[in-house]
């Protein structure tokens, strides 16, 4: 949920480890692990904890409060985007991340990671923009100053409300919203009203902006075929960034395919003694690959029997070696190899 500044931090110890255990348990059970959902949960948690060098690199919460007047007056995009990733307390963070885990797993596994990442980015921009537009409109047309000038909010719940609208848009089932059974399509509206009634100091415009952003996303998504432009851009960027990694993997596989030494034993292909590649022939007794200039197997001493041996493979010595080698046991062949190569 989006919290206003008056709610305080409300830190409760030990909730983040419970969130981590729950998230790991859920991911362990999934055959496909959604990486974007995991990355969003980790990013929100690290921004809240601010460990090590992040404490000095990240702006403080006072610098990122979502306040419509400051965003418009200062053209402050930092407040516009980063305020969604900041939370007032541990309970605020864990509540939102539990909701993100449940919604993210369902949406990302059904849409794919690239399209899901594109959707989250669009919902973030649209929910924040809609909230800003609502506050400005109330101030201009109804002279309502509080939402525009004096409310400061943070939290990921605007995006979560938009995700709930997208997730339930095609559902004909009923769902439980804080003990009430309502149609899944209207669950976001029911939750908006119930939270406003029972949870103090929440941002009504922030949640309403999220719902309207979800509806707008569905309308825009249904107006054209194929992936949206942002999804195409993300796929292209990922392809460019992953190219060096693919090149390194292919290079590594190429090195692994190279044959070390003079030959190999028991490889694939024909075992009739014919040349596997130009300049080599396979021994019919031990399947060792020898150089073409050799007429006797370097491994077991068996004579060459193909038609490329310049007539030398049919000599009496080679024929006798071949006859004897056919009667060798595996243990005798092993001992001969050890004796020959030391």
Automatic annotation (TrEMBL):
Indicate yes or no for the key word Membrane.
yes
- GO CC, alphabetical: membrane
SMART domains found in the cross-reference section: ZnF_RBZ (SM00547)
Q: Which InterPro entries match?
A: Peptidase_S54_rhomboid_dom, Rhomboid-like_sf, Znf_RanBP2, Znf_RanBP2_sf
Alphabetically sorted, this entry's keywords are: Hydrolase, Membrane, Metal-binding, Protease, Transmembrane, Transmembrane helix, Zinc, Zinc-finger
Q: What is its main location?
A: membrane
Name listed for the protein in its UniProt record: RanBP2-type domain-containing protein
Lineage, top ranks? Eukaryota, Viridiplantae, Streptophyta, Embryophyta, Tracheophyta
């Amino acid at each position: 949920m989006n919290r206003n500044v008056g709610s305080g931090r409300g830190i409760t110890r030990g909730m983040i480890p419970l969130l981590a255990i729950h998230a790991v348990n859920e991911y362990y059970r999934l055959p496909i692990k959604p990486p974007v959902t995991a990355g969003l949960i980790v990013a929100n948690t690290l921004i809240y904890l601010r460990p090590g060098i992040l404490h000095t690199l990240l702006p403080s919460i006072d610098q990122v409060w979502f306040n419509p007047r400051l965003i418009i007056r200062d053209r402050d995009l930092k407040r516009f985007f980063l305020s969604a990733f900041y939370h007032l307390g541990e309970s605020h963070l864990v509540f939102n991340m539990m909701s993100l885990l449940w919604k993210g797993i369902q949406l990302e596994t059904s849409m794919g990671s690239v399209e899901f990442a594109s959707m989250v980015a669009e919902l973030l921009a649209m929910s924040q923009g809609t909230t800003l537009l609502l506050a400005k409109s109330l101030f201009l047309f109804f002279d309502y100053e509080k939402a525009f000038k004096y409310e400061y909010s943070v939290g990921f719940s605007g995006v979560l409300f938009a995700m709930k609208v997208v997730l339930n848009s095609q559902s004909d089932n009923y769902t439980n919203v804080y003990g009430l059974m309502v149609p899944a399509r209207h669950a976001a509206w029911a939750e908006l009203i119930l939270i406003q009634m029972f949870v103090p100091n929440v941002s009504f415009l922030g949640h309403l902006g999220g719902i309207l952003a979800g509806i707008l996303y569905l309308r825009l998504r249904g107006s054209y075929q194929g992936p949206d432009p942002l999804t195409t851009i993300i796929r292209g960027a990922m392809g460019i960034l992953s190219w060096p990694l693919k090149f390194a993997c292919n290079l590594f596989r190429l090195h692994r395919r190279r044959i070390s030494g003079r030959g190999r034993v028991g490889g694939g292909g024909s075992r009739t003694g014919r040349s596997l590649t130009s300049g080599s022939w396979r021994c019919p007794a031990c399947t060792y690959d020898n150089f073409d200039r050799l007429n006797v197997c370097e491994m077991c001493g068996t004579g060459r029997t193909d038609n490329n041996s310049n007539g030398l493979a049919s000599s009496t010595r080679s024929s006798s070696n071949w006859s004897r080698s056919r009667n060798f046991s595996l243990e005798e062949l092993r001992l001969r190899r050890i004796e020959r190569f030391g």
